[in-house]
Amino acid sequence: MSEDELERPLGRQGNGEVPKEPHSTTHIQEVIGQGLRAMYDSLKAEPIPDHLLKLLQRLDTPKKDEGQ
Amino acid sequence: MTLSPELRDDILKSIPSLRAFAISLTGNIDQADDLVQEAIVRGLSNIHRFEPGTNMQAWLFTILRNQFHTNYRKGKREVEDPDGAMASRLSSPPEQGGRLDIQDLQTALAQLPFDQREALLLVAAEGFSYEEAAQICNARVGTIKSRINRARTRLSEILGINESDDIGTDRITRAAIQREQGL
């Protein structure tokens, strides 16, 4: 395993910050992060409820007096 | 008003994330969908304030989060125990390799104070940066980091995660341990 991989932050902060916590904390961070993302993935995979789609569809009909 | 196709697409693309955040925050699907709807209606009626080129998703998250806190302060709705409707809706797949059980995680999340829960969800689940989460929560970056640390510590206590945990027998965690040991 490369030095680079060892230094890779485990949380997905997206700002390239390397956590300075001890290893056990990093492990906890990874397990929890993985669980949270799995939870989110299953929630995001649900279809968008109709009433929310209709809300946006109502805005799709261009008004005739607008030139665009 | 007519929404530009770009803005409409941005809003549409944000909805699954907004729902996931709202459901995880409230532990209640109906309450979450109401929150998402309120956030979109508010966002649409304030769309002239949105600065094109900035992050639509973060903007809508801010609106939803503020709406949640307003409702909660007013006692408009009780935040319900996620054990009921929420947990049964989630239909998590069977355990694979000892990963965290999603329902256990949801139940544990519900035990966190709101400020810790929202910070953890924004950064660790949704993938916002600390800076973005700080803006959404109207808090300092250091405050967000500290809330997330406390949230992780509390969750690991509730879920019984530690370095020599049973969860450590699965492939992913073994890989993590190997990484820690430099193997």
TrEMBL record, chain A:
Annotated segments matching region Disordered: 1-26
Domain Anti-sigma factor NepR: 29-60
Protein name: Anti-sigma factor NepR domain-containing protein
Species the sequence originates in: Microvirga subterranea
Pfam families named among the record's database cross-references: NepR
TrEMBL record, chain B:
Domain RNA polymerase sigma-70 region intervals: 16-77
GO BP field: DNA-templated transcription initiation
GO molecular-function terms, A-Z: DNA binding; sigma factor activity
Ranges of residues in domain RNA polymerase sigma factor 70 region 4 type: 103-155
Keyword Transcription belongs to the record: yes
Entry keyword set: DNA-binding, Sigma factor, Transcription, Transcription regulation
Family annotation (CDD domains): Sigma70_r4 (cd06171)
Disordered: annotated span: 75-97
Keyword Protein transport: no
Family label: Belongs to the sigma-70 factor family. ECF subfamily.
PANTHER family: RNA POLYMERASE ECF-TYPE SIGMA FACTO, RNA POLYMERASE SIGMA FACTOR RFAY-RELATED
Protein name: RNA polymerase sigma factor
Organism: Microvirga subterranea
Organismal lineage: Bacteria, Pseudomonadati, Pseudomonadota, Alphaproteobacteria, Hyphomicrobiales
